[in-house]
Amino acid sequence: MPVPRPLDRRHFLQAATGLGGVAMLSSWGGPAGAAQSPNERPVFATIGLRNQGWTITNKSTKFADFAAFADVDANVLGATNAKLEKKTGKKADGYEDYRKVLDRDDIDAVMIAAPDHWHTKISVEAMLAGKDVYCEKPLTLTIDEGKLIEKIVKQTGRVFQVGTMQRTENNQRFLKAIALIRDGRIGVIRKVTCGINGATGSPVIPAVDVPEGLNWDSWLGPAPKVDYRALPEMRKGYGGGVPRYTNCHYAWRNWYEYSGGQMNDWGAHHVDIATWALGAADTGPNKITPVSYSLPVDYENGYSTVENQYNTPTKFEIHANMPGDIPMVITSEGDNGILFDGTKGRFFVNRGKLAGKPVEDLESNPLPEGAVEDVYGGPVSENHTANFIAAMGTRDQPISDVWSHNRMLETCHLANIAIRLGRELKWDPTQREIVDDEQANSFLSRESRKGYEINM
């Protein structure tokens, strides 16, 4: 195991407030051969820099120093390093190949914001290289990838934080929602509805020349070799500066080859909170029923029949039968957020509000002191990175651990499989396999492209 490197007491307490109490004074696991400076902050690197990659880096400079960046797009790499220099006065070493980051002895932890199809390979190799890992959600492209990550976390003892920041941030709205449920404010839960937005399909997207500076083969990585595709119209707002219709930057979320559409993207947030609230974080559903759905292209045997258009669902209503036969509805209709229905009332929560009579009643009947902290497992961290660094100190797993995340994400993965095959699935949450359906079980894993297998 890597040799622990002590973190300066003052910096550690400032960075890690919110988890572990007195236990925060214990040393944290830095890499073997790392410097022993008592005033040094943890040294991070970010792999995959566009959009969320910079977002998590930017929020983390308060707690850690960034020594290295890696991205297969030289334009993104350069732009992100310029942002870092403007904010901190220092640039990070930049690499196209993430493995050069993992080879460095001075890197304590990596933050991964590459597209979903890269998450497992980079995460596993980072842990085997002695790094703690913060990886964006959704963590995996398949259910079996989640099992592998769990195995390597256990094998290496590394700390692993998944980027489901709703567990820590958003003014504690989601923590308060769970506290309301645990305090019996809506009685027994009868139904949970997760609104996660629909999506749109795309026109036919032609194959075009790869943009200068982008290593397309490396971007594809474990995914099948295909042409780069894009239309001239540019995307605006968040994720802007790239083609609106493409199979690369930002829009990769609309392709099953690289992601799971809205089901995995927003589902990884709201299904996570709903599963946590139901007390099902160590199990999951026993049945997934695709009540209705719309796919933007034709499918055959669970696969798109075309390769030049988005292929993830645009609309859907999925029913997951959760423990205690509580229905969880995952829908593209209605408001984005979670509606909890109980025998004594109902309330709604999302990133902007926590609303309903049980919430209004808090004015005259507040939650017991410490109720939110009890949900979180201690004082709530300043942000998700602070919680991660605190866990690096205690060597405990952080608030968004891989086990609860994978159990939740299995619901989303199964929903996508049910949609792709057009049928109900029975799930064995103990064996973690689909019951009596060989074809459906074939979707629990995927084969990596030759040359991009996970290096074990």
From TrEMBL:
GO molecular function: alpha-N-acetylgalactosaminidase activity; nucleotide binding
Domain Gfo/Idh/MocA-like oxidoreductase N-terminal, chain residue ranges per copy: 85-163
InterPro entries in the cross-refs: Gfo/Idh/MocA-like_OxRdtase_N, Gfo/Idh/MocA_oxidrdct_glycsds, Gfo/Idh/MocA_OxRdtase_bact_C, NAD(P)-bd_dom_sf, TAT_signal
Domain of life per record: Bacteria
Domain Gfo/Idh/MocA-like oxidoreductase bacterial type C-terminal span(s) in chain numbering: 203-453
Enzyme Commission (EC) number: 3.2.1.49
UniProt keyword annotations, A-Z: Glycosidase, Hydrolase
PANTHER family assigned to the protein according to its UniProt record, in alphabetical order: BCDNA.GH03377, OXIDOREDUCTASE FAMILY PROTEIN
Protein name (database record): Alpha-N-acetylgalactosaminidase
Annotated organism of origin: Allorhodopirellula solitaria
